[in-house]
Design goal:
globular
Amino acid sequence: MPRFRVGVQLHPQHTTYAAFADAVQRAEDLGVDTIWNWDHFYPLYGAKDGPHFEGWTLLTAMAMLTSRAEVGCLVTCNSYRNPNLLADMARTVDHISNGRLILGIGSGWFERDYNEYGYEFGTAPGRLKDLGASLPVIVERWAKLNPPPTRNIPIMIGGGGEKVTLKLTARYATMWNSFGPPDKWGHKNQVLTDWCNQLGRNPAEIERTVCPSESELDSLDAYVRAGATHFILGMGAPWDMTPLKKLVAWRDAQG
């Protein structure tokens, strides 16, 4: 694996499918390592009832539109799908992508999705408990599927809760994602390392990813010092690839 990796999260809102597909292909042509969408049912910003596409259906298309970059949801909401079904969906996209799927997952937070689609929103601790129950089910289902996944599908857990989320990450994940600023991200990163040590997990087995803002692209060294090795830039339509080109150039200059 190279010293650093870079990715892009293309927000599947306020766009057409044709425009989204074009952005996916342009991102891969720029040389990113990973391409992500998100798992929501309504826009997170802008016109609240504007155009929006479902994440996992879109992942299948992303797998077919690309040939090199890994793809995933940043991140899947655990509440929206039975864990056995989610495991099967992930295995299927893993095959469609020739082994390029990353299963990004989190406990969920966007209340409108729950209310509009008939899911019980409950409480944050309850949703985290459900995530903890789902993760071993997903792993167990992968071992039962025929055909099996093409590889050990990487699991990315998103979130920074120090008592539960980061402990689950230390136990089950191969990637972790959170947001800045660097000092906050660095603190969470250290907590994750501490959990790994307590649980007997090698901390180096978990890739540390961060979603910097566009304004932080000139100061990525602070994240590097804090331990980040994978940088994922979020962007919405219309997709101006200039910041992403800058991120790719930064990666390539690191040697």
